[in-house]
Amino acid sequence: MGDMIMSDDDRNSGKVLIPENKVYEVQDGLQLNLEDPYDNAEWECIKYAPIIAPSRDARDSKGNLLIDGEIAEGKTHARYGVAELYVEAPGVEVAKKVNTLKLRHDAEEYIFDDAKGAEGRVFIARLLGKNMKNAPDSEVTEYLLGIAAKDPKKIIDVYSGSDTGLRLLIIEAREKNVIVVKNKVFTYADEIILGVSEDSVLAFLKDPKNKKVLELIKRDTYPEMEVRKKDKQDKQ
């Protein structure tokens, strides 16, 4: 129609093309059908606009909410996010809620059906950073269910993961000052740097080339195991 300068390839592509200088006035309640070629083309034009968040709870690369913002340390009011609108996809939000409910159900099943019963739940609580050795099973269960309600994946990962033994070693090694955190860096024997987080320490200890360090940490954390091992060798 004379609105755009187009090449023959563009003109014959069969695609919906929109002028680069088209001005959009995006308002609350705008509906787009992405199966419609023109609506889909318009969405491609506007979806990366800073004013639009991809979801109600979307965050930027630093973890800040794009819409509501959060109250920073020392401040009394929330810092407003850069976005003013968000995308609500019919069916997608419902599917997310259903998936969350399923994860929560699965996490609760892990807790209630723990193969080791109360002892197993205490062990899981310990892995999650809370020592509840002398607490009643009802309190331990309530604590785990509270985590399942907020972050079910955390419970599922702990129960289904293969690193539970190493994670417990890290926790107990820290409690006994075998592993020390200085300036946010995990170290062993004041000179061996293990990582800057528990996950990075875990990765370090899982690496076969660090097997010797792992054995030394085990020896220092569980010296009674070393004594038992020596006694057994002496008897042989």
Descriptive keywords:
236 residues; mainly alpha; Rec A Protein, domain 2; 3-stranded antiparallel β-sheet; two-stranded parallel sheet; 10 helices
N- to C-terminal distance:
95 Å
Q: What strand line-up does the widest sheet have?
A: 3-4-5
Radius of gyration: 27 Å
The CATH topology of the domain at 166-235 corresponds to Rec A Protein, domain 2
| DSSP, total strands | 5
Mean pLDDT comes to 86
Percent range of helical residues: 40-55%
Give me the CATH architecture of the domain at 166-235, please: 2-Layer Sandwich
Order of helices and strands: HHEEHHHHHEEEHHH
What is the overall shape? elongated
What kind of sheet is the major sheet? 3 strands, antiparallel
The assigned structural class equals: mainly alpha
| Poorly predicted runs of 5 or more residues | none
CATH class of the domain at 166-235: Alpha Beta
How many alpha or pi helices? 10
Structure, briefly:
The chain is mostly helical. The chain has helices at residues 8-11, 37-46, 92-112, 117-127, 137-150, 152-160, 164-175, 198-206, 211-221, 223-235, and strands spanning 52-53, 85-86, 179-182, 185-188, 192-195. α3 packs across α6 and α9 packs across α10 (223-235).
